Automatic annotation (TrEMBL):
Organism: Chryseosolibacter histidini
Name this protein carries in UniProt: OmpH family outer membrane protein
GO BP, sorted A to Z: protein stabilization
Any one GO CC term of the record: cytosol
Transmembrane spans: 6-24
Coiled-coil boundaries: 76-125
Keywords linked to the UniProt accession: Coiled coil, Membrane, Signal, Transmembrane, Transmembrane helix
Family label: Belongs to the Skp family.
One Pfam family cited in the UniProt record for this chain: OmpH
GO molecular function: unfolded protein binding
Amino acid sequence: MKNLSLVLNIVLLVAVCVLFYLHFSGPKSASSYSGSGDTTSVDLKIAYINSDTVLKYYEYLKVNKEQLEAKTKKMDQDYRNRAMGLQSEIQAYQRNVNSMTLGQVRATEEDLGKKQQNLQMYQQSLAQALMEEEAKLNRELYGRVTAFLKKYGQERGLQVVLKYDPASDVLFGGPGLDISQDVIKGLNDEYQVEKAGGKVKADTTAKK
């Protein structure tokens, strides 16, 4: 049942390019305005994450992905069992149709037709349920990562955090700007505290 296969779209982090217009290095001054425009300079501090790496080692995603895959297999098996049961009924009807009355044939075919329709509707409902589960996980993942990056950026005075992978517009990023390992550690630290039933501390990131 290909429609029920799990598809966790990594493109969910396309919007991880979050702008943190937080702290400007040079305070604005009325005396700096010369009448030709705002001359206030901005010290733009930028970092980036490798989204593939972050997603690969984020324990929250790993756990929830495994749970969703298990649910997908269970739904798929349930559908297969129902389909096999209906197939058995169809085969029994085909074996016995010659000994059935016209009324019995019509009634059986009508019943089998309804069961086929119900099975198709059930298949569609399973596919829809899995799509909703995937969308929910994607929303939660996006929210967790962006919330962490916002806090991380505030603590380190970052104005921009970019997503760096083959699908992004970032063609090159110096290793000194890569905060992927910090983000992975911080996200996993928060998740471990959450699993333990505690409150996430204000700073769970690794400082370079």
